[in-house]
Amino acid sequence: MSHDIRPAPVETTTAVSEDDVRRIVRQELERAFRRDPSARTAAIVASKGTLDWAYPPLILANAAAAVGMDVSVFFTFYGLNIIHKDSARKLKIDPVGNPAMPMPVPIPDIISSLPGMVPVASHMMRSRFAKNNVATIGELLNSAQEADVRLIACQMTVDVFGYRQDDFIDGVEFAGAAAFMARARHAHATMFI
Q: Cystine design at 76: which of 49, 154, 178, 188 (Cβ 3.0–4.6 Å)?
């Protein structure tokens, strides 16, 4: 009896390059965006007006714009400080109001509430950001505007605080909450900061 011994068929695999993977992912994202246009939209409300709270809405807005989303940031109440022409003076940090703020040495609340501590804490935070190459608020605003992020000031708050439209950086839009909500209700990502 003779046995025919043949090797088993060898499965071949096709190597997928990094460029192929990127192309496939890009195609899948484009298909998803066509199915749901709101997946490309982000609406962010910026309501805080201190230095530490100015960063989150701007960083998130820039990140969303970088991945191709259509982004709007609605600045209301103290968040108007972020887009005010005098933001460098208005955006401060108070160590008493921020108990989680990392200090180089432990400081009792009674000391941190003394006159002059707000400028010290603000300077310390700006220095820490600069040391770690974090963009300034002005740089984040510029990059947001270059990426076509809509910066919208709450008209009611502008009126209540007695501001004028020319108190704000160039390119800021003015609208009421209802106008912003009409846009935000269709957004894929909506955040209140």
A: 154
What kind and span of H or E run contains 70? strand 70-75
Q: Which of 34-44 are b and which e, b meaning 16 or more Cβ less than 10 Å from the residue's Cβ?
A: eeeeebbbbbb
Q: Where are the alpha helices (DSSP H) in 70-187?
A: 80-83, 87-90, 109-112, 117-131, 137-146, 155-160, 177-184
- Chain mean position to CA 48: 13
Instruction: Determine contact, residues 85/168, Cβ cutoff 8 Å.
Output: yes
Q: Tokens 């960083």 correspond to what residue?
A: 59
Rg (CA), the chain: 25
What is the rounded distance in angstroms from the CA atom of residue 48 to the CA atom of residue 10? 64
Give the three-state DSSP class for 45. Answer: strand
Helix residue ranges per DSSP H, the chain:
18-35, 51-66, 80-83, 87-90, 109-112, 117-131, 137-146, 155-160, 177-184
Structure tokens at 121: 């804490």
CB 103 within 8 A of CB 97: no
Mean pLDDT of 42-63: 94
Q: What angle do CA 140, 143, 145 make, to 5 degrees?
A: 110
